[in-house]
Amino acid sequence: MRLLILLVLFSVSNSFVYAQAVDPLLTADAQAQMKWVDSIYGGMSLDEKIGQLFMVQAFSNMDLRHENTISQMVMNNHIGGIIFSKGDPINQARFNNELQAVSKVPLLVGMDAEWGLSMRLDSTYAFPWNMTLGAIEDNQLVAKAGYHIGEHCKRLGVHFNFAPDIDININPKNPIIGNRSFGEDRDNVTEKATAFMQGMHSAGVLSSAKHFPGHGDTDTDSHKALPTLDFDLKRLDSIEIYPYKRLIKDGVSSVMVAHLNVPALESENGLPTSLSKHVITDILKGQLGFKGLIFTDALNMKGVANFDSPGDIDLAAFQAGNDILLISEDVPKAIDKIRDAYNSGEITEERLAHSVKKILKSKYKVGLNKFKPVALENLLADLNRPKDDVLYEKLMENAITVVKNKGDILPIRNLETKKIAYVKLGDDDGSHFLKGLQKYGKVHEISGDNLDEIIEKLKAYNTVIIGFHRSNDNPWKSFEFSDKELVWLYEIARTNTVILDVFVRPYALLNVKTLENIEGLVVSYQNSPIAQDASAQIIFGAVQAQGTLPVSIGNGYVVGNGLTLSSLSRLGYAIPERVGMSTEKLHKIDAIAQRAVDEKMTPGVQLLVARKGKVIYNKNFGKHTYDANAEPVKFNDMYDVASLTKILATLPLLMELEEKGIVSLDTKLSKILPEYANSNKKNITIKEMLSHYARLSPWIPFYFATLDANKQPDPKYYRKEFGGKFTVKVANELYMRADYQDSMQKIIRESDLLKSLRYRYSDLPYYILKKYLEKHYEKGLDELVQDHFYQSIGANHTTYNPNSKFSDINIVPSEIDDYYRYQKVQGYVHDMGAAMQGGVGGHAGIFSNANDVAKIMQTYLQKGFYGGKRYFKPETLDKFNTCFYCDKDNRRGVGFDKPQLGESGPTCGCISMSSFGHSGFTGTYAWADPEEEIVYVFLANRTYPNAGTNTLLKENIRTDIQELIYEAIID
Question: Is residue 789 a contact partner of residue 652, using CB atoms and an 8 Å limit?
């Protein structure tokens, strides 16, 4: 009867036949390999040969007794391999070296490192789970993941990675596979597994396809019991076994056989597949033609351990066709059983040699014929490299999936119209996501003790982003919404415009009964900091969305669904290597910035570097002031940027008008302001005065004339309270007469011109242009820049007069004024002329942080395009970035500063001539380089407590940092 059943099975399963053409264990120097194998095998005793069949489990976080036990087993039982489990890399490397030293034949070392060594070891890198990789369209990225993991394994002396897991996770309730699978689609799983495997192979590490014949559609954990796979042969061949055919063809090094009950493949009721000769020898080796190593899954798992007693299980597994017996419950007893079977003729020499020589071939293939101990020096650094972060970023950006986008809510556009709230669900941290969102727009976290409170608070917002965050510690962690969270989700979505972003496996959405009221749905797969950052960037269009669902999630959304969203060209955030910069070299900047603080050149610094549209360096140094208890500098702190105002406020407004044909660079002052018709400045053009080539005085100290004989604010011009003519606030409790602003314009109009025409920097053009712009638009300059640029760009920390909008705790003071206002200047512009214009000057008055300044400079770098909106044409930027008077020894563009023409100047001298920027009196500096696509922002308050000597300039702090930035370019 048994023979009849097997014949029927064989005839029905002819579709399994898929002969492997190449032995995956053979090396290019196969003759030398076999010579070494035969030599080693020929010198072995019977016990030494049998010992090679065992791979025992070792821990690097246990006591000396454990280490001695394993060492004795290696020496006394001639163990062939070690599978390392929990511990840390330094101790594992040490322990591995010690075990190799006492082993007659070098040990084959394996690990479960499906998503990297961190699957078992602390202090090592965790790459995304397979389910996340399954969402990626570009299989080359998956191959790189396999390669990086392979590199880590090899560096730690691990030869076999028990990966990839090629189970097709059709059952969402699978308790043990889940995130370890590439998904539910057989073709996608096969493609991803093949790429991952090939990546590992290219790193010199052997692979293992698991868990044969397929553990994806089970609802039992084989660690705890024997799962049943109750499908017919046609189904098994077309789904579960399908990936093995491809991987065997493409050279998978080994196959791990699962402990499963599969009646269609094995007639003996309850016999685990790992002990089935028909499954292993007849199907895997015979019909599928597999010539690589065959591992049992761990023999201490209940799925097999309950079937028979220790020793007998090992013998049965070997007789079934397995080559390596993984984690035997009793190695000495198992060796005795196999020796007895050999001596009785039950196991032939041919059978034993078949497996042992395959094992030795594997050892030769990984270089154990020339074994070298694992080097401990720089081990941790080698296992946690910047390039691993680069890859992780790319993987997450390519995996994150936009599933639903009703009304094109994603990516978020028109920031000037958005009031965005963030609500966190789940029991894990979502702070990286929130901070990421806040880099782009005004996003407020809303929380409350009850749903009614939340709903009431959300009435003030028109867009709600809900982040569902659960633990990222391992792929088995709980991922489902609680009943309470589902109620909150439904109700918030019913009453608001909602974007739901889930940072867990996609299956969490199966419990969401309806997605009807959710406008945007994003699956981010994991809750790691990098995943949170990447998801925020996708939501705001800094990064395009291109992932597809690896599994179906209900509500009509099936495997393969995913919307492609284009980038809006907003600034992204990445590590330096992502854009061809060196993290290590950029770290040198820290010392210079810290020196500036330590030597009291400035109390604090905000520093930002971006390249190719990504912020790669953004750090803060020092405090707001030199006081011991002063606030440390934070990312959202706002600095008085002084003359950066010229290119951040006045210039872009003028560029708009020039582009519209309302003015040209050759327009004369008398044309834009008729009151200049009889002035000595009537024929000065916009191009001339913004190139600082118009014979204008550098500076007029307007405030001098408003001081009394004691150099105090003259009561004729100032009052301590607002009222009457005294409506211009120049500082706290100090108001100037409004009509004096007309006097300032008159003074400028009637001022003498310099005697000779040469380059001479002047603030006066910006007083003039402010008046023109406000007259043209019939609006204040402060309103204009918000309406035309800042709100839509998302420059939410850029404004005039910040003390009307922000707390002093976020505004860095610029001076203790002892010559005009006689108070600490905080939240009021440092420049006296701008202060006398109510804090709104064309030349000074803007407060900002480095991130916002970078957005505006990036807009320039992108020739007027940012956030999906064109602010001006490329040719407009090019026109204003032209040095029209270089032949007159004047380096300036139209409004922009440019690199020096000679030895000294505003830059490091190592930057392209197409670059442009500006500096400010308070110590600020912003520069953009189109050729290298670099934006550099340096914000400081070097004028605090008083301006004094500009040591920042004297010591070349800003330009020395700029030079280091260019030295850090590696690609």
Answer: yes
